[in-house]
Amino acid sequence: MRGLDLTKQEDRAPGREREGVVYARELGRHLTWLDSFTGLALGVLAAASGIYTYLGVRSLLDDIGAWTTFAALSYSLAVSVGIFVFWSYMLRLLPAMRSAASRIGLMLSMALGSVAIVAMSSWLNAAALAGAAAVEQHLAHTTQSYQTALERAHSKTIAGQSLERDVARARETFQDLSAQEATGDLSGLAGRGAVFRVLTQKSDELAGLETQIAEQDSAVNDAFSQGNAILSRMRALTVEPGAVEDRSVRFAEEAVRLQGIISELRQLNVAPLVSRAAADLRDSVVLPDLDASSDTGRAAQQSTIDSVMGLLADRASTLEAAANEVQALPDSEEIEYTPLSAADAVIRYAGNFVPSWAGAIAIDLLPAVLVFVLMVTQAAIRQGMGAQSIEDRMTVSEMRAALEAARRLDLTDHHPDPTPPDDGEKEDRVLRAAE
């Protein structure tokens, strides 16, 4: 039984080999048909990549003269030729490799070439595909940054304006005390004596500071309104139709104006002024001469002035602490608009344009897929052919040509030349007969 099974396996083996040969020849016919237009398709891909590369190069060059156009055309043509030649090499050589070492070596070469193609072409293709949109993205991002800086500067300035209430409370305190001193309820001496003059002096200082803060309200509101108006124009430039280069120039002009408004808002912040006024409130006191008629009255005035000085120190510390809290708020960032070219904008905001980058890289590296398809197909053909002799792989037409060559050799042998041919001449005769 075992011998019978082995015999059946031996009978089936030639059948499987014949099926493999048929399969391999079918794949070979498919490859022959596909190869008829593969070169044309590769040329179209290389030409398309060259066109987009040309557009990307033109976006990087400022001059619009004839030499600039010639330079951009030369670069794009070199890219197209390089892509076509490189992938032609890979399509022909890599599928034909049979050893693992040669395949790995060519694959490494293909990977290096792919990186070079991305470096010299794909990023320019992406600039041509999404360059204008990337520049608009840069404008929108810059507008948002300016808006944040304007709002932060305005908020800090408004916080400084709120110190007006603290100054008003301190002023009211000293005014009330001066009114009490005028009636004699504070030091016991009615009238406008030394204590009254000290209290009036500080209340007048605080009133002047309060008026100065209040006068800046309109300036702060006007500056913030102007900043918002500039931001509206900047947003309009971001989405306005037309060439993005022209819009970028107008956007830069508006950005300069807005930066001036932000600087003005920083200068309108009164927190540093209040902090200095608080220090003056405590340290700069002009003490009048005690004008009571008796020693007891002068002692009462001195005691009241000492109490007033302590109160001044407390109010000054309170105002200074409030002003320091305002100054401790985070400042708005220093923003400077930097115009970007389409290529630079595509690189900076690459994460927002993944489809464009994918398309730009795919148009250059799509032939790599064809290379792997050919490798798989060639491997399948070799497996189908197996280890066969030349007689097994000969087609009918090849066999007919071989028989005709043998017949011509026989005729030549029946009519020999006077001089016997050497081995080289015999080989030439065989080749001519085969032809």
From TrEMBL:
Keyword field contains Transmembrane helix? yes
Keyword field contains NADP: no
Where is region (Disordered) located? 409-435
> Where exactly are the transmembrane stretches of this chain?
33-55, 67-91, 103-124, 357-376
Q: List the keywords (alphabetical).
A: Membrane, Transmembrane, Transmembrane helix
Q: Which residues form the signal peptide?
A: none
Bias-annotated ranges (Basic and acidic residues): 426-435
- The name under which this protein is listed is DUF4407 domain-containing protein
From what organism does this protein derive? Answer: Maritimibacter dapengensis
